[in-house]
Amino acid sequence: MFIHQLVHRLIFLLLVSTNLAQSTIQVIGTGTGRTGSTTLHEALSILGYKTYHMKEILTGGSSRAPELDYWFDAFTTNCSHPEQLKDILEKHEYTATVHAINFPCHDALLFDLFPDAKVIHTERSSAELWHDSVSHSICKISRDSMLMRIFGIFFPILRKFKNFTPLLMGRAIFGQYEAVQNVTTEYCLSHKEEMIQFYNDHNARIKAVVPEDRLLVISNHKDGWEKLCEFLEVPVPDVLFPHVNKRESMLKTMALMMVKKIDNFSYAARYLMGFGVCVIGYTFCSWIVKKVTSSRDKSKVA
């Protein structure tokens, strides 16, 4: 049994490495946020693709900060310098890219830079479900929360990304060519019609412009490995299909991602610990002062 599994694994790795020998983008994901793009990222990684995703920037530390400058420019000029994106992807030897950060550069990616790449479009089973998921996850954590402010103290790239977020939200969630500020769950719920219109238009456009032989549409990743591997012409791996970044764990995932992988973790850890000690100390002192004040008031009454 062990020998059989070992042989199967070796054959799988051989076929995958042969398929990915060419260091260029072979897969482009075109789904909006909350359609399973992070799950697709993990699945492609298991299959041997080196996959570009927003978190690659966030976990790359200061060395990846210039990429945000590129995306600021791409979102404000409608991807006027696609050759720079190609340089970024080729510099790090990526073979796939799947995040909504690509939105202003979709046409350049699909038809100019990598016209032979296969396209995987993720979507939800209904626009209503997509809107509900976005409203209670992305819209919820995009606001200027205290947790994000604390992380921003120790991770400069997160502060920079915070300034970029309104542009990303505007284009990839609302379909606007300008920044959308102060997005909250309530804001998204009140703009339901606008968001669903954009979502449906985006899905329809991708299906209309991408040739059928290059396109795989995935709804909720309900088919697991089978259709994905068949489309990519790679063997099915002997591991469970990943399902990650669920709505309820989105903030936790981001926090763990920042703590575990940012290159100045030791620096941040010391100061986060110091911050925690200060909070505990402040709480304890406040409690003591409150108790002393209460005792004095009782004495005066007596």
TrEMBL record:
<dbReference type="Pfam" id="PF17784">
    <property type="entry name" value="Sulfotransfer_4"/>
</dbReference>
<feature type="transmembrane region" description="Helical">
    <location>
        <begin position="268"/>
        <end position="289"/>
    </location>
</feature>
<protein>
    <recommendedName>
        <fullName>NAD dependent epimerase/dehydratase</fullName>
    </recommendedName>
</protein>
<keyword id="KW-0732">Signal</keyword>
<keyword id="KW-0472">Membrane</keyword>
<dbReference type="InterPro" id="IPR040632">
    <property type="entry name" value="Sulfotransfer_4"/>
</dbReference>
<dbReference type="InterPro" id="IPR027417">
    <property type="entry name" value="P-loop_NTPase"/>
</dbReference>
<keyword id="KW-1133">Transmembrane helix</keyword>
<feature type="signal peptide">
    <location>
        <begin position="1"/>
        <end position="21"/>
    </location>
</feature>
<keyword id="KW-0812">Transmembrane</keyword>
